[in-house]
């Protein structure tokens, strides 16, 4: 860590540094009694990990790294799984749904794994979470709610909850509907009869001993909530965990804003304090509606990784976390090219600009310096005119016209992008391409362009070709050159948008482009 980097980090306006400075101010120049700064992310294992899980861990990691650049206090990241929750609803995307239905209401960690691979449903989904996080190289510690409850690690704070039972009720009851108030309890006992997580009113018998009383099916039970005998309602659970673990930082979505306020008040009642954190905006679908797993209108992380590299989704997640953004297939190409553009700029930027560059946070300051000789957009246009049956070898053959020494060995990242471009074109571009016939003015201009291209050597530079394209538009009666370029895209490529034509023609080849023009004029 250089003094210059630390000084720049302490004043950078990039959002990870602004968040990290909240944690730094929280410490007031000292070190927490636990000896480290604890960052936390939460995961509900009733479903499989998704892009929201990725975004939250990624963004938290970015803040953690930013903090490390401005302080020597050690840090930890805890990925906490709420796997003692009762199963409320059977997910649509898992097998053996009838079996799961029989176990509704039971803790996830006590329900058989519908996939038949692990000792419980929670163990299966927790394993998926760890594999998911490991795939992206996140540094974290995994924590299981079941383990923490049953081991007695939360027992002191469970007693604390009982000792402050009425104060917690006074916080929660005004936030609930009248019907819910009648049955609400911060404590959810695990039934000694059915093994289910019960939503029943309770009476505190002995807070210091962890004893409560409740009724189930007409039978009154006196029950110890310690060491796995109960869990807490999630807002109380959230607050209790903050206090028990002394969490310093946890971000969450805008939809949990009110919950965060209530949990913060409960944490204060318990003698602790709410962690610092960012409240981030939610992703929207293509229509601007909130993404919902039940609606199926979201974009799965696996979908993004089919059509773009992992760095591009990290780039998209980094940008403006406090602003709502659409998340759908159509945003991927631009995110890919913007990632590589910001990466290309990084090496020559002064330090303060580097710290504001998204790629600094994506790569933890270790930004690759390999240049990309071709954009993703240009690759998409190339495979678009090649057709849905285009393959990787054919694309590399075209790249030989444009990139000296073009090969998968020399440019492995380009080879990866070609795979993404072929998949994106096959699934989303090729089915929509439709070339229109040029009108009279456009026909004359295309003939002029064909003649100018015929006069150029086959290996002409992209800039020389671009100059000829411009000249045709200016001399062809197009008052707005955008109309000329739109005509080229629509008549030659079959799309309403397209690349810098000089670059595209240099890549596709002059002879091939003249064939496109001939087809348009036929």
TrEMBL record:
Residues forming the motif 'HIGH' region are 45-53
The family classification in the record reads: Belongs to the class-I aminoacyl-tRNA synthetase family.
Q: Name one Pfam family in it.
A: tRNA-synt_1f
Q: Which organism is it from?
A: Sphingosinicella microcystinivorans
> What name has this protein been given in UniProt?
Lysine--tRNA ligase
Q: Give the InterPro entries listed for this entry.
A: aa-tRNA-synth_I_codon-bd_sub2, aa-tRNA-synth_I_CS, aa_tRNA-synth_I_cd-bd_sf, Lys-tRNA-ligase, Rossmann-like_a/b/a_fold
User: What is the enzyme's main class?
Assistant: ligase
Report whether Ligase shows up as a keyword of the record.
Answer: yes
For this UniProt record, the keywords arranged alphabetically read as follows:
Aminoacyl-tRNA synthetase, ATP-binding, Cytoplasm, Ligase, Nucleotide-binding, Protein biosynthesis
Q: In which domain of life is the source organism classified?
A: Bacteria
The catalytic activity of this protein is classed by the Enzyme Commission as 6.1.1.6
Listed binding positions for ATP are 293
Task: Show the catalytic activity.
Answer: tRNA(Lys) + L-lysine + ATP = L-lysyl-tRNA(Lys) + AMP + diphosphate
Its main localization is cytoplasm
Q: Which subcellular locations apply to this protein?
A: Cytoplasm
PROSITE patterns, sorted: AA_TRNA_LIGASE_I (PS00178)
> Motif location ('KMSKS' region)?
290-294
